[in-house]
């Protein structure tokens, strides 16, 4: 995001964000393939994780589109990317992702602690 704001390495930023979106979409798919019914609150946890990763993928896709817009003529002004609807949509999706990640962490961490598994701060989801 910093590079996009500063109109630097826009092509790489867009490519990295698209790769991250693809990875998150893959996480949603893989989670659907896992047997998680023995985990406490697994349905709610799975729902929160899927929501978090889908929203994060959406944010990444919007931010990549913003980088593409910034790379075009008049997309940057005085070394700063102009705000666009893609940026706003990315920010909304990112906010939704954060809410879902916090919920997932609240659901996972007590179970992780009880069974000696790794607890996860929401930002790592």
What features would you describe in this structure?
This protein has about 120 residues and is mostly helical. It has 4 helices and 2 strands; from the N terminus they run H-H-H-E-E-H. Strands 1-2 form a two-stranded antiparallel sheet. Strand 1 and strand 2 form a beta hairpin. Helix 3 runs antiparallel to helix 4. It is elongated, with a radius of gyration of 17 Å. It starts with a helix and ends in a 10-residue tail after the last helix. The model has no long low-confidence stretch (mean pLDDT about 95).
- Let me know the average pLDDT: 97
Overall SS class: mainly alpha
Strands ordered across the widest β-sheet: 1-2
What count of helical segments does DSSP give? 4
Order of helices and strands: HHHEEH
Keywords, separated by commas or semicolons:
125 residues; 4 helices; 71% helix; 3% strand
In a few lines, what is going on in this structure?
The chain is mainly alpha-helical and 125 residues long.
Question: SSE layout and pairings?
Answer:
Blueprint: H1 2-5, H2 10-33, H3 42-71, E1 76-77, E2 80-81, H4 85-115
Antiparallel strand pairs: 1-2
Helix pairs in contact: 2-3, 3-4
């Amino acid at each position: 995001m910093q590079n996009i704001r500063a109109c630097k390495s826009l092509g790489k930023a867009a490519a990295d964000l698209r790769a991250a979106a693809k990875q998150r979409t893959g996480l949603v798919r893989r989670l659907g393939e896992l047997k998680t019914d023995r985990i406490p609150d697994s349905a709610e946890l799975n729902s929160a994780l899927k929501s978090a990763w889908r929203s994060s993928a959406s944010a990444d896709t919007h931010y990549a589109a913003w980088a593409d817009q910034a790379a075009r003529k008049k997309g940057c002004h005085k070394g700063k990317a102009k705000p666009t609807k893609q940026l706003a949509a990315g920010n909304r999706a990112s906010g939704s992702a954060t809410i879902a990640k916090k919920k997932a962490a609240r659901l996972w961490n007590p179970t992780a602690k009880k069974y000696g598994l790794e607890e996860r701060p929401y930002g790592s989801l």
